[in-house]
Amino acid sequence: MTMPGISQYYDGYDEEYQCPVLDEDRVVDELDQKMVEGGVIIDYHGCDLFPERWFHIVFVLRTDNTQLYTRLEDRGYTGKKLQDNVQCEIFQTIYEEAMEAYSEEIVHQLPSNTPEDLEKNLHQLIQWTEQWIKDHN
Q1: pLDDT per position as a tens digit, 117-131
Q2: CB of 99 within 8 A of CB of 59?
Q3: How many structural domains are present in the chain?
Q4: What whole-number distance in Å separates Cα of residue 14 and Cα of residue 36?
Q5: Which of 39, 58, 93, 118 has its Cα between 20 and 30 A from that of 112?
Q6: What CATH number has the domain bearing residue 98?
């Protein structure tokens, strides 16, 4: 599948957040066939734009607010962008969005605070994938 250049997935620029605005419809249209074929992992900071039929499982990574603040500051986030991202974590916005967008039984939270959490999460994803392949082949 040939996909257009990355800039063709943008629909403007958000000056307040200092980032491109994603053309969500175009992204979903471009990914749809690939998602139907299966074997794809989507990594994104939101989920309500993606159809439920695409996913067998959804993992929401959660981070302690203090650590998240430091991580985002280290990435150069400031002002409203920094505050909104931390508030989003405090209010569990992404988790709640996932619970509304998909069947509750496929949505899982994973801690993402330490390098050890990263290792555990990777191990859990590998185990889940291997089991899913066994169950569906």
Answers
A1: 999 999 999 999 999
A2: no
A3: 1
A4: 32
A5: 39
A6: 3.40.50.300
